[in-house]
Amino acid sequence: MRDHSLEKLRRGIDALDQEILDRLNRRMRLVEQIGRIKAEKGLDTFDPGREEAVCRRLVEANPGPLPAESVRAIYREILAASRKLQQPLKVTFLGPEWTYSHLAALSVFGHTARYVPQAALVDVFDSLCKGLSHVAVVPIENSLEGGIGQTMDLLYERPVRVVGECYLEVAHCLCSRAADFGSIGKLYAHPHALGQCRKWISEHLRHAEIFECASTAKAAREAAADPASAALCNVKAAEHYGLSVLAERVEDHPGNTTRFIVLGLKENTPTGDDKTSILFAVADKPGALYQVLDVFTLHGLNMTRIESRPNRLHPWQYLFFADIGGHEKDKHVEDALKEAASRTTFFKVLGSYPRANPRNPIRFDLERSRFGG
Ligand SMILES: C=C(O[C@@H]1C=C(C(=O)O)C=C[C@H]1O)C(=O)O
Description:
This protein is of the alpha+beta class. It has helices at residues 4-41, 48-61, 68-86, 100-109, 121-129, 149-157, 191-196, 198-204, 216-224, 235-240, 288-298, 331-342; strands at residues 90-94, 114-118, 135-142, 146-147, 161-169, 173-176, 186-189, 209-212, 229-233, 244-247, 257-264, 274-281, 303-310, 318-325, 346-354, 363-365, 370-372. It is 40% helix and 26% strand. The strands form four sheets. Strands 1, 2, 3, 4, 5 and 11 form a six-stranded mixed beta sheet that branches. The ligand C=C(O[C@@H]1C=C(C(=O)O)C=C[C@H]1O)C(=O)O binds next to helix 1, helix 2 and helix 3.
């Protein structure tokens, strides 16, 4: 028997879908006009500040029942399609495909951007600096392992700008062509993944010989070539390289999260809820670091991170990486940065960008291979 009420509801949906499509196309025509203006003025296609403002406004105005995370997921792809109409955005990251950097990049730029994997982190920076990519996505710190030294060094050395950030939950799996743990004699893994799964490995894979790899996806590729081995990687890398997942979530602490930054070459527009990353060095004298930090206290600016790193050009001197609340174009931040810079021996503003919430990281759903959270 035909269910008339179901058919009627579906006719309602068809009419609404047509309306959504018409309106999306109206939106795309405006996007094309903006694209032409940008081309005339030599402006970048990608404007992360504007995109974040678009999403935040919609999340705030959303009456439901559509959850906020779905509003963001839908708009991630609408914005990707919009950018693609203006100029396909080339996004570079540490490859091969399906590293966590790739997942982070997809969570920011959606599926219709053009993704350009690189063999090493330095190549990611070079691709951006040489204009071969428009933006780069690189890891900057992990909740268990701390700062990513190589990224910090390259931020010091290269003229790039931080234009965005995102937090991604890192869920490692033990993946292999073998049917069980018993036959695994070798473990391929990125050193950070090893650090995050130390306890689990010592309990379950004590006898395996460990081989460090430049990325988790490379580890998966190695394990695919050798049935007596396993890799620590994410579920997408396992799928891609034909491995089975022998154990899920093998990291020692739940809530293992990596913060990624988006790099570009130009300054970002303020959104009203931004963060600014800076890099500085101080003189070798009592109170020198305190003098700089005091400026931020006096201006009421919250410092969310400070980390030191050896200065490779000058042994036994240190660089400080810090993040403070606000945008470098906000008057009170601008004043504080000027004053702080006057108390340092080296000072670089790495960039201002929309603030992401570390307590609500992007989650990559193991069962459904989808983003949420
Ligand atoms: C349309 C624009 O270009 C891009 C696409 C956006 C959009 O679709 O809303 C927003 C910012 C840009 O990254 C724009 O700058 O407004």
